[in-house]
């Protein structure tokens, strides 16, 4: 006959398993760390929402997943759940097709290389920290965009073919002509040490 201590332990285990099973999520916060190599990111409906992560942290209905890789990396993510994405990269080129996603936030830290991003028609904040290289961000025509230059040391900012800032001569804010009237607005918080940032509308 099991003693009282064993019964208490089994009861605690059942409660823990029940809590783990009840831990659900309705959105994903994904952090990608890459030291070098190319990165290609896109969508695939049959991809697992958490990319088979073994120990995701779930808080307030959001699943937090961090992946680290060195070398060329091709990822297909599920577009079914709202996504907040952070990408930290040291060296290499990247192509991020984020158009199929319910994107809620985007943070990009790029030390050196070319970065091409296609954004969806969503309202969101983008934090871009670029040390060297070139970043090209393509947005739907209907989306308004505003750039807040938090630091602009040396480089060039181009919006729809027009040079808005060059060298170290920059203002604090720039915005597209349709920003105030647009249903969806993208606010870009820019830290540019050296390089070029190009914003353009999709054809």
Distance between the termini: 75 Å
Question: Helicity, in percent?
Answer: under 10%
Order of helices and strands: HEEEEEEEEEEEEEEEEE
For the biggest β-sheet, the strand order reads 3-4-1-6-8-10-16-12-15
- Compute the number of helices: 1
What count of structural domains? 1
Overall form: globular
**Poorly predicted runs:** 5-22
The proportion of residues in beta strands is: over 45%
**Gyration radius, to the nearest Å?**
21 Å
What is the mean predicted local confidence, pLDDT? 87
Q: Main sheet, how many strands, which sense, barrel?
A: 9 strands, mixed
Question: Quick one: how many beta strands?
Answer: 17
Structural class: mainly beta
Structure description:
The chain contains one helix and 17 strands. The protein is mainly beta. The chain has one domain (26-201). The strands form two sheets. Strands 3-4-1-6-8-10-16-12-15 form a nine-stranded mixed sheet, with no helix packed on it. It starts with a helix and ends with a strand. The model is unreliable at 5-22 (pLDDT under 50).
């Amino acid at each position: 006959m099991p003693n009282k201590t064993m019964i208490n332990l089994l009861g605690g285990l059942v409660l823990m398993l029940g809590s783990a099973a009840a831990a659900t999520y309705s959105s994903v916060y994904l952090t990608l760390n890459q030291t070098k190599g190319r990165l290609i990111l896109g969508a695939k409906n049959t991809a697992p929402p958490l990319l088979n992560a073994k120990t995701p942290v779930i808080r307030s209905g959001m699943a937090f997943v961090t992946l680290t890789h060195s070398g060329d990396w091709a990822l297909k993510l599920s577009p079914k759940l709202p996504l907040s994405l952070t990408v930290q990269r040291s060296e290499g080129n990247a192509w991020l097709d984020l158009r199929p996603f319910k994107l809620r936030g985007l943070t990009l830290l790029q030390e050196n290389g070319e970065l091409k991003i296609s954004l969806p028609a969503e309202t969101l904040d983008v934090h871009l920290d670029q040390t060297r290289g070139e970043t090209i961000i393509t947005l739907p025509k209907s989306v308004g965009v505003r750039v807040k230059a938090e630091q602009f040391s040396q480089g060039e900012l181009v919006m729809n073919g027009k040079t808005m800032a060059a060298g170290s001569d920059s203002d604090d804010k720039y915005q597209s002509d349709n920003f105030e009237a647009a249903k969806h607005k993208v606010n870009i918080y820019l830290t540019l040490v050296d390089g070029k940032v190009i914003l353009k509308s999709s054809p």
